[in-house]
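Thread: Modeling a multi-component assembly for a lab meeting

Hi all, long-time lurker, first post. My supervisor asked me to bring a structural picture of a complex we are working on to next week's group meeting, and I have zero experience with this. I have the sequence lines for every component (288 residues in total). Could someone generate the structure of the whole assembly? Inputs are pasted exactly as I received them:
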Amino acid sequence: MIYLTRKIEFSASHLYHNPSFSAEENRRVFGKCNNPHGHGHNYVLEVTVAGDPDPATGMVLDLKELKEILQREVTDRMDHRFLNYEVPELKGQIPTCENIAAVIWRLLQPKITRGNLHRVRLYETPDLFVDCYGETNGAGASRGGPQ
Amino acid sequence: MNLHLTRRYCFAASHRLHSAQLGDEENQRVYGKCNNPYGHGHNYVVEVAVSGPVDPGTGMIANLADLDAFVDRQVIEPFDHTYLNEEISAFRERVPTTENICIEIFNRLREFPRAKLERVRVEETSLNSFEYTGETSGSRP
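Re: Modeling a multi-component assembly
Sure thing. I ran the full set together rather than chain by chain. Output:
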C-alpha cells in the first residue's frame, strides 16, 4: 500500500457565531473569532490517497487528476471566500477547522475513484490542524498509515 | 466523522543523556556529545492530537482555549526554561531522551477532560521527532 499526498493552499475568511447563544456567550466561547467582521487564514490542505500503484503506469492515481479534483472541489469553492456566507456546504455550521475538514472529506470522497481517500489534513495555521479519516469508528482507521 | 485536532506548542529546555545503569565510558560511547556533563539545550516542539465528537453548538472537538490552558499548566509551564534532569521529577530516574519526554508528556496530558488524547509528537530538532500513542506494546519498556 502506498500513501500519496498532495498539498494545496487557499485563503478564506470566517467568523464563529452561534445564533442560539447570547452575545456574551458567543464572545466567551469563541473569543476573538467572534468578531462580526470576520478574519482570515491561509489554509493548507493535505489530501492523502491510499492504494497500490497500477502496474502499467506506476501510479496510485494520476496526480494531474487529483490536482484537478482539488481545484474544482476545494479551491474553486473556498479560495478567497467568506466561508460562512459563500460556501453552501457549511451553511448552518460553525466554520471551524473540524467542520471544514469534514466538508472537504465529503466533497472529495466520491470523486476519488482510484485508490481510497485516507486522510484530509487541514491546517488553519502552522500550529493548528485537523485530520479527518471519514466515517470510521474510533482511531483505528488512522493506524497503519503515515501520521 | 473521525476527526483529530492537533495543536503545536514549544518549550526550550536543557538536558543531559546519562544513565546511572551504565559506566562513564559506556555513557560516553552510547550518548556521545549528549553526555557532556554540563548538558545542552533544545527548542522542543510538541504536537498534541485529540479526538472526539464535534459539538454541534460550537463546531469544535475541544475549545482551543481549554486545550491551551491544560497543556500550558501540565507541560509548558513546568518544562519551559528548565534543566529537565533536575527539575522534572520523572527524569531523576529516567534518561530524558526525547522518547521518554514524549511518554512523560503523554502521561501528563492523558486526563484532558474535554477530548480523548490520541497522540503526542515531540520534535527535538527539526531533523528528528518521536510519537507516542499510549500503546505499551513494542520492544521497549
